[in-house]
Amino acid sequence: MDRAQKKALQKCHLDLLDSLNPEDRVVDHLYSDGILSSDEKAKILLPALVKEKARELLDVVPRKGANAWESFISSLRESDGEAHVELAGKLETMLAQVQAGRSPRPDRQADNDGSGPSRPQYNVTSPDWLGVGGSGSSSSGGDGSQLSVRVNLDDNREVYKMSSQPRGLAYVINNKNFAPSSGMPKRNGTDVDMKALDKLWTSMGFEVHVLKDQGGGDMRYQLGRLAKLDHSGRDCVIVSILSHGVEGKLYGSDGDLVPVDELLDLFHNDVVHKSLVGKPKLFFLQACRGDYFDKGTDMADGEVQQSIEKKMLDDNADTTIDGKLQSIPSASDMFIGYATIPGFVSWRNSERGSWYVQCIIKTFKECAEKDHLVDMMVKVNQGVALEFEASGHNKQVPSPIVRLTKKLYFRPGYFQR
Length: 417
Known about the structure:
single chain; alpha/beta; 6-stranded mixed beta sheet; 3-stranded antiparallel beta sheet
């Protein structure tokens, strides 16, 4: 499938999960067209619940070739269910809108009671200095990526509003135990991180929800649901994920490898609930991103070396070796905090938790009243890089990705009155 087709599937994901029944000739059609292998067909039909079958199918189909889209649409239209025919129509309509560069959300708002104003029309414009001139339906590519949407901004365009009570929702996904078939070991020490983050986000004014041992499908569902919730009266969303990982993917407790980008895409401004558009969405990912070890480089600093020696205990790699209307980009207002750089392991102590979370807790407690998020994460980088070392002189440095467009101050204890 091409990117536009994948985007259309993503935007209709919840509708597909609700109404798609793979057993209703859909899988057989895809198999007869050569889209699915016999092993893939068996894997899709293995779960007991219809929704889990649908989730398996929606995980496989987007990764197939150029003929997958037409075969999938045809399988829906030729099945016996009227709901499938409606799904085919929704998908084709959504694809046309994505290709045209409009990309509205599907005609549903999960967990919204329908109150409040309707979603504003999308408005794509080019700044005067680009020489394009005027407003229109242009976008950077026909697949719906980097679309702009209209949002109301606060008067202070330098700082995100952070004064609601509660500040927002904070999800902590803690995958400690893994299915034997996954080959992943138990993540000893992760409960320390979980409890510390629960306490930290609560102290910052967030409503915390802890989710333990989530399979790949569970992670997709929970975060997809979070993105579609009505966030009116809340200023921010935080997602913390503690798990095993490889480059670009996180392990579910069932061994399912979930692409990080798939989870992040759920929170783009063009697909989230309208009440979350333009608000900061923060992700903290404690997981390995590969199996390389950073052996570090010696530096002449006695104090740093003394601090390092105190912390060289039983640290383990977190893997098997594993007011005004203005247009904004769809992928803006996000912060993604990776515990380590691409290709490298992330370290976790069985008694004290991961290096990364330890430094987040320490830094935020000391600095959240005066420093903004990016400045604090630079201090987290410094703490992990200089204050920790595992046996064998193994080092680590976090890798934050900043897509925020303003400064973010948590201002704990301050609420709007």
